[in-house]
Structures are given as C-alpha cells and as structure tokens.
Amino acid sequence: MPVYKAPLRDMKFLLNEVFDYPAHYASLACGEQATPDIVEAILNECARFCEEVLSPLYQPGDREGCRLDNGEVTTPRGFRDAYRQYVQGGWQGLSAPEAYGGQGLPASMGLFKQEMMGTANWPFSMYPGLSLGAMNTLYLHGDDAQKQIYLVPLTEGRWAGTMCLTEPQCGTDLGQVKTRAEPQADGSYRLTGTKMFISSGDHDLTENIIHIVLARLPDAPKGTKGISLFIVPKYLPDGQGAVGERNAVSCGSLEEKMGIKASATCVMNFDGATGFLIGPPNQGLECMFTFMNTARIGTAIQGVGPAELSYQWALAYARERRSMRALSGKKEPDQVADAIIHHADVRRMLLTQKAIAEGGRAMLYYAARLADHMVEGHTQGDADKVAKYDDKLGFLTPILKGFLTELGQEAAHLGMQVFGGHGYIREHGMEQIVRDTRIATLYEGTTGIQALDLLGRKVLLMTRGGAVREFTLKIANFARKQLTDPRLRPFALELLKLSGQWNLLTLRILLGARKDRDLVGAAAHDFLMYSGYVTMAYLWLRQATVAADRLDRGGDESEGFYRAKLATAEFYFERLLPRAQSHATSMLSPTRTLMQLAPEHMAFTD
Amino acid sequence: MPVYKAPLRDMKFLLNEVFDYPAHYASLACGEQATPDIVEAILNECARFCEEVLSPLYQPGDREGCRLDNGEVTTPRGFRDAYRQYVQGGWQGLSAPEAYGGQGLPASMGLFKQEMMGTANWPFSMYPGLSLGAMNTLYLHGDDAQKQIYLVPLTEGRWAGTMCLTEPQCGTDLGQVKTRAEPQADGSYRLTGTKMFISSGDHDLTENIIHIVLARLPDAPKGTKGISLFIVPKYLPDGQGAVGERNAVSCGSLEEKMGIKASATCVMNFDGATGFLIGPPNQGLECMFTFMNTARIGTAIQGVGPAELSYQWALAYARERRSMRALSGKKEPDQVADAIIHHADVRRMLLTQKAIAEGGRAMLYYAARLADHMVEGHTQGDADKVAKYDDKLGFLTPILKGFLTELGQEAAHLGMQVFGGHGYIREHGMEQIVRDTRIATLYEGTTGIQALDLLGRKVLLMTRGGAVREFTLKIANFARKQLTDPRLRPFALELLKLSGQWNLLTLRILLGARKDRDLVGAAAHDFLMYSGYVTMAYLWLRQATVAADRLDRGGDESEGFYRAKLATAEFYFERLLPRAQSHATSMLSPTRTLMQLAPEHMAFTD
C-alpha cells in the first residue's frame, strides 16, 4: 500500500526561503510564539501524525465507508482512534484564540496543518475541517455566552460542528432555502426542514455535534435577505459544559458517493429541533459568508493535496515499472527493459503533477500570509485591516479554489495514467485519489461559481478591474527585477507580457459587458483559468528566483533541490503556461457562440 | 433513472447527408444488401434494442458487478437475457462473412451498431466486442478447419472470445511475455502461464469461450519476434459443433476496478491448457496487430459514447434545475429561478459535450468508410487495397483512439459538473459515466502509446511526414471550396492556416529529431492532441457545409437541426479549437524541459 510522505523540504523552502515567514510571524501580534524552532517542531510532529496515523487509514476508509444504523453514523475502523490522537495533540485549536482554549498560533499554521492532513487522508480531514467552519462562525457572530458554551469544546475537539446550507431544491441559490425557524417563548427557536449534502452531519468521533443552520424566521422577507443563522446542537448543552437532552435533529440517510466515502455526507432532518439564533435576524447569509474566503482556501488545498499524493505514488511506480527502451537509447541495459521514468511522455505527466503540486502549494502559502493579516484584523477589531486583506484574499480565493481544484483533478488523472491499466485497479489507490478529488470542483461553490465570483464580483463589480491592476503591478515589479539574470529572464519577460495582457483582457470584458451582459458569464471560466495560470507563473518565478540565488551562493547540500526547482519552473513556463493563451482567445469570442442556440434546439432525437 | 435515446437524427445526417453512405455502399461488393431502407431499418431496430434492453441495465449492472464463485463468473442480473436477445437478433454476425454464418454487411454498420450499444451500456458491449476481436483474428489467420470449428459459433454469438495479451510484468511491452506453449505429439500445445486484465475472460453468457493467447514456443527467440498465437477454448470442441471436455484454463480472480464493473476483468490461469497454433510460429504479434486499427477504432467509440450519454442526461437536468437568474435578465419570471440552461457557463459545458459527441461521431463515420474499403480488400485478397486503406486508417486510428478518449473524459466530467453536487451522487448516474470512461485512455494502448504510434511510426518512420501531407491536402482542398460562403469562410480560413501549420510542425520535429532522439517522445502527446483538434475541425467544417447548404435550399422541417449544426460548429471553432495553439507551442519547447531532471532529483522529502 502506498504511503504519504510529508513534503517538508518543499514546505520549509516556501516558509523560510521564499516567503520569509519567520519575519512575517515576528510582525504579527499572535506570532510571538511562532518562532522558527516552534514552527519546525509543530510541522514535524504534524507530518509524523499524518504519515503514521492518517495515511494508513486512507485506503481502508474508502473500502469500508460510513454506516448508518438506527440514525447513528459509524465512521470506518481506526477513525475514532485517530481522532482521539488528534484531540490529544491539541491540533483542532492550533490557530484558535487562547481565550477559548486554543493555542493562538497564526491562521497560516492551521493551513499548513490542513494541507498535510488533507493530503494524507482527505476524507478524515473533513471532520475537523467542517468544525473549523462552525468555530469561525461562532467566533465572529456568537455572543459571549454562546462562545463559552460551544466554542470551548469545539476548540478542544471534544465536540464537532457542521455547516447546514444546502437543501434538495437549492445549493448555490440559497435564496430558495425553505427550512423554518419558529420563535419560542424561552427565546429559542424550533427548526423544521431538510438539509442535504451535510458533511460530518453525524458521526461517532465526538460526544456532540453543533450544526450551524440557515433557516427562515416566520416574518422573513423572500430570497437571500430573509435568511437567519442558527445553532442547533445534536445534544442540548446542560449548562455545565456537558451534553444533555437529545435534540430533534437526525441523519435521515447517507449519500452514496463517487468518493470521499469515509466522510459522512448526510441528509439531516430537523423535526422541530431546538435552535439558537446567531447574529442579527435575516442577515444569516452575510454572517455565513464572512469566513467564506478562508473556507474556500481550505478547499483549494484539495487541489494541491491530490496532486502531491498522486505524484508521490506515480513517481515511485515510474521508477520501478519497466517497459520498452528509451528513444535515445537503453538506460538500464542490464534490465529486461528501462524503467518508464526514462520515457519523455511519462516525464511530461510526472512533471505536470510536480509543477501543479509545488506551484499550487506556493499559491497557498502566499495566500496564507494574507489570511494571517486578516485574522489579526478581526482579533484587533481593526475593520480597515480586515477590509484591506479581505479584498486581497477575496481576489485570490476564487482563483485558488477554482483553478487549483481543476488542476488537482488533472494531476490525479495523470497519476493514474502513469500506472497504465494498473491505475484502474482499486488496490493501487490511484483511482481513489481521482474519485476523492472529483468533489473539489463541485462543493464550496462549483468552478463556474468561482469564475463568476472572480470576474463578475471581485474584478468588475467591486473594483472595475482594480484588483487585476493591483495584483499585476506587484507581479510586474517583481518580474522586472529578474530581467538581468539570464536564467530567469525568459520567465520574467513572459510574466511581464502576461501582466499587460491580463489587464487588457479585463478592460475588454469591462467595456464589452456594458453592451452585452452575457459577456461576463461567457468569459468567466476562461478568465478564471487564465488568471490561475498567470498567478501560478508568478509563484513559479518567485521560487525560481530563490533557487537561482541559492545556487549562486553555492556550497549548499541542497543543490539538487534548487536545480529541480529551476527545472520545474522551466517546465511550467514552457509546457503548461501556453494554455493561458488558448483561454485568452476563447474568452473574447462572441457570446453568441454560447447563447444563440435555443434550449429546444440543443438536441434532436429523430 | 436516466435513459439513452439513440441520436438517430444525427447518425442519419452523417450517413446520408455528410458522407453519402448510400453511394459508398453501392460501390462495395458487400454493399448490395445495404440499401438505404435496409440500413435505416437495421439502425432503428438496433436503437430500439439499445434503448429498451441495454440502457435499463446500465446502472444496475454497475451496482451489482460481476461475481466469481468456484472459478465461474456470473454477470449482473439481466445480462444473460439481454445477450440472448442480442444473439437472437443476429447482431454479432452483422458485418461478418456470410460463409461463416454472418450477414455479410459492411464493416461500418458494425461500428454504427457498436456506437449505440456502447453508449447505452458500455460494459455490456464489451462481451460481444471482445468476441469480434477474436473473430477477426481467426478470420485472417485461422486455417479452414479452425474457421469452421470456431468462427461459426462465434459469429452466431453462441460462443464468445477473448484476447489474452497482458501479463503481470508487461502490457505495452509484449516482448516480455512469459507464457509458454509446449508442443504435443498430436499437434496441439500445452499452455502454461498467467494473463491479466482479460476482459470477458470468463462469464455466463455463452456455452463456450475461445481465448486467443500470446505465448512462447520452447525454441522461440527472445523479445517480440518469439511470440506465437494460440487458440485456447474453455471447453474443447467435440468435433460435432458442440462443446466437450473442460480445458485447463480458469479465471483466478476478478479485478476490483474503478468502473466498468459489469464487465468481467479476469486474471486467467493457463495450467497446461490445450491450445492450437494460429498463423505462423513466432509471428503472433504481427497477426495480433493486423486488426489493431479496427479494434482501436472500436475503443475510440468510448470517447464518443460517454460524451453523448453524459450530454443527454446533463441537458435534461439543465432544463429542469432552477438556480439564480440569467445575467441578461429573468428568463422564466414565473418561476422561483431560471433553469440553469440559461446560464452562459452551463451552456459552455453542454456545448463542449455536444461538440465532442457530434464531432467525434463524424470522425468515426469518416473512418468507418475507410474500414469498409480495407475489409473489402481482405475479402477480395487484394493486398494493394488492404495496404492503401490500412495506411489511411493507420494514420487516423491513433488520433481517433487517443484524442477522442481524452475528450470523452472531459465531456463526462462536464456532465457531472452541470449536475453540481448532485453529480457526485451515484443514483444520478453521471459519476458512473466518468468511472466507466476512465479506462478508455488506458487500455488498447494508452494515450501515450497512441501518440508515439502516430508521431513516431505513422508520421515520421513510415511516411516521413507524408501521412500529414496527404491528409492536410484533402483538408485544404475542401476548405478552399468553402471560402466563398460568408458563414463558412472564417472556419475555412482557420482550417487552411492549421493545415499549413500541421505540416510545418511535422517538418520541424522531423528535422529536430535527427539531432535529438528524445524530441519524438517529448512532442508526441501535444502532436496527438493538436492532430485531433485539427481533424475534428475538418469534420465540423464538413458538417457545417452540409447544414449551410440545406438551409439555403429552405423549406426543410429540419431547419432547427441545421441551425444547431452551424451554431455548434461555430462554438467548436471559437471556443475549443484555440487549444490547438497551446499544443503547438508546447510541442516545440526544448526536450530539456522534460529530460534534464535526474530521476533521483524528482522529489526531496526533507
């Protein structure tokens, strides 16, 4: 069975060499504890937990799946014990405020942890991951009593949380939510309705589960402006910090899914369940979306994780499996055939995976610094700081989530492809990565929704192109400085060209959309993918710049590592980045090509 | 449960309007029976069988899968009855020679049948599909006695066949085959060895199974020149046309796969099994490859089928599911929200599926005419004709198989994506299409192997670019004629440009490969995909040309159909064809980008 090895060398390269996290942490109020030694110790310990505890449960969890008996969900064998270790390690509270039992470390460290956990065992990582969503919502919108009652056990990991948004008739379009909340004399509410696709809706990992639920008050306006947010605990807290009476919320069924089978995806029935309002009435959606950017960065990890995992396993296979001879002559003359890693096309697949995994990780680490600043803004009650970094993150988030989850799927497919027919067989694990990853472009907003969020909201509506101007200015300034180094010059030139083109494309859409409102929807997907390729190119140049510098200094035992960075950057610029141009061409093609065909003319059976 | 509706309108458009099959059949010796009325009746009857019998078994077959008990494989419920109807309908012998009990119709009709069967229920269609491979091999290389004994019951469908090539240590690299064949005093052989990934290796559909097996004679030279071909029946024929003694070949286990679960993929153990040599000793691989091109066109169907099926289901869903409002204003003001078919990005996905399904089908129908001529050459013993059409088909086959199966996967993924989160749930069937389709780029030669076959063998080695020159000349001549029609002119101009570019790219690789032998492998994948996009563009122009002409004539009740053809052609040229340019750029990038990194520098764990 293949295993996961945390890419600590690459993580430390990004942390210490590319993004100078030591200085960044030193600048944060909450960064005092996050000294380089502490950070390294935490990452090493997290790597050990992921490699030794979570990774071995990845394939068995898929095989066994979750079970629903008498309304109670059982997770696969081993999950309870792994979760117990997770709680004992204090991992759930790593980046949570000390006031509620957390360790108060920077938010970015939570993301580094999540990447390792999600790569070793994505379905497992969803249980604590969903809890984080609930914790964030409570932290920002709960009152003091609610925080004391719920946030403390959630931070300890004794309790878990969920986010209950989707209903059978609506996912993206939450204005259609029907679940009702009737006020009671004691100030509580009774919730009635059905939620679906609720990850971690029920399970046996914790003694209680706190559902954060979108529902309508009796007098609520129609649509999105009439939705409120409620806490609905599985067991009502007894007021002493322990669990009391069972609430009228239950798992009606488990979805049978393509993948992430070890993650319980529940239909949740609320049958007059007791709930408590969080935040102001009818402003539930706004409250819900406060932390959407961070949640979506969490999902972007599911682009990087599968690329990394599938690459590790495909690389090991490509070094062992022997087939045919290399076109340029025998590489292993004593063997019956050459290892397939010597074939150019196998290398194309492996390097694509590597470029996606490492390029994507760099994008995450880049965004994680911004997340630290935004969270600090929240902690300090500094609305300006929150707004500033929320804007920066808000621009990057749909790119990270939309683009990286699409490329993660490509990487997972290529990993299967390296295995040939063996990739299709369950025991090798490659097809599981593909199945598990397939959800990533669907949940937390499909790729289409990310594309509209990016182009329609963040770029056009909110900033009239300003977000692109600001980001490309940063890119261009950085690229310009690298023009003097002959190794980096071709990359820098390409990036300068793309920075200009990105603005031009934005402008053309901005102007075109005035006359043709469909243009935004018609261009959005290509714009998203284009933005992703350029952003990843920027992060590859940043990595290449550091690698070139380290090689110049010489005498480093990591010389091979830096050479590999330069080679992978070159591969990215030469072989993947050209795709940006096909997106540039497609996005400007007339909307007519998408909109002219009447729905009834889309198919003719006879 | 979604159902399959055979796209008869589109099939008849290609048959009668684009490729003039009536005239083509009239020109064939075996085409006498294939009058337009007969062809239409056969297609309609096949459509009925696929829609009513095969399609309802598609999802249940996936759920139930195959079972192995005491060495005997049981197919899912309903498969036996469906197969009985298939045999009764005489479908297996549709294109088989009358001399052996077939109907003697043109080979192309077999492909049209296979497309419908494969779209309605790919896993089911593999059982008779594999038999066709065995039948073709026997027809071309068996002696008269072998043909009488085996070919007749195979043609009737009473018996089934398999192709036993792959072994645990080798798939592509068949020179590594180890299975041994010991000659016996009676002229038979005893075969010993293990074969894996044997589709239809055992099942309960027929009274006998005829394995065509690659094995080595005791004195055989090493490598590919020491492999011979054998018939190994599950039950030895009794000489009276019935089955006799059980042979020492058995299914050791069933592979647990990502998809095509209703198709039995067997490990086959040959324990001194009785076999009979077919064709000359040590020339087994050549015999095996004779019909490789037609077999691979059969697999290319698995690119078109899933695109069609996934499109049908996604289209139905997109018309029903309501979410948000169209950007250009409400389309269904009386409804709670607009159907998602009104969103540009959903249309992008649907039209991509449609363009792939219909463009791919046109590529199949185009190649099927060539297959008819090649088969006629075999029937007439006309080696020149065989060689001529084998060359033409040999060039197109890797493009069809490699390119269409890659695009079929994209189409299947987009169908899931249209369903949003619901696409991930098993009951909707969309994820099954993705899982079933995933095998298509792996078996019958991976995409990488198709790419090497195309660029390395067919284009460079065998014709020094001549194959591209010949095909692009045809394209350019056709395109030039369409320049006067303003609706077709932009497409024609683009195709003319691409025809020139395709030759130029070929020439640059031809010259470059003299100095750098890795260039062929490094460029192959991009060359294949580029070739596919240009070929599909040619077939879209051919369809658009007919549609424009029909619209000019006017008064046709199919006006909507022809307008949809033009609109889909426009979509293809504007939104999908630009990808060819990113492949053109990537394929000429230096081989260094793929080859420079030492295998041991591909990953650094710490």
Which runs of chain A of at least 5 residues are low in confidence (pLDDT < 50)? none
Radius of gyration of chain A: 25 Å
Order of helices and strands of chain A: HHHHEEHHHEEEEEEEEEHHHHHHHHHHHH
CATH topology name of the largest domain in chain A, in short, is: Butyryl-Coa Dehydrogenase, subunit A, domain 1
What is the count of DSSP helices of chain A, taking H or I runs of 4+ residues?
A: 19
Note down, in words, how this protein is organized.
The structure is a homodimer of 606-residue chains. Helices cover 57% and strands 11% of the residues of chain A. Chain A has helices at 8-18, 21-27, 36-54, 58-64, 79-88, 107-141, 144-156, 284-290, 292-320, 344-380, 383-418, 430-437, 447-461, 466-481, 489-515, 518-553, 559-576, 579-587, 592-595, and strands at residues 67-69, 72-74, 159-164, 180-183, 189-199, 208-215, 228-233, 235-237, 243-246, 249-254, 265-278. The longest helix of chain A is centred in the middle third of the chain and has 37 residues, at 344-380. Chain A has 606 residues and is α+β, with helices and mostly antiparallel strands. In chain A, the strands form 3 sheets. In chain A, strands 3, 4, 5, 6, 7, 10 and 11 form a 7-stranded mixed beta sheet that branches. The first copy, chain A, has a two-stranded antiparallel ribbon with strand order 1-2. In chain A, helix 11 runs antiparallel to helix 12 (430-437). The model of chain A has no long low-confidence stretch (mean pLDDT 96). In chain A, strand 4 and strand 5 form a beta hairpin. Chain A folds into 4 domains: 8-141, Acyl-CoA dehydrogenase/oxidase, N-terminal domain (Butyryl-Coa Dehydrogenase, subunit A, domain 1, Orthogonal Bundle), CATH 1.10.540.10; 160-283, Butyryl-CoA Dehydrogenase, subunit A, domain 2 (Beta Barrel), CATH 2.40.110; 291-323 and 349-445, Butyryl-CoA Dehydrogenase, subunit A, domain 3, CATH 1.20.140.10; 465-592. At the A-B interface, helix 1, helix 9, helix 10, helix 11 and helix 12 of A face helix 1, helix 10, helix 11, helix 12 and helix 13 of B. Chains A, B: Residues 475-597 form the Acetyl-CoA dehydrogenase-like C-terminal domain. Chains A, B: Pfam families: Acyl-CoA_dh_1, Acyl-CoA_dh_C, Acyl-CoA_dh_M, Acyl-CoA_dh_N. Chains A, B: Residues 282-453 form the Acyl-CoA dehydrogenase/oxidase C-terminal domain. Chains A, B: Its EC number is 1.3.99.41. Chains A, B: Residues 40-157 form the Acyl-CoA dehydrogenase/oxidase N-terminal domain.
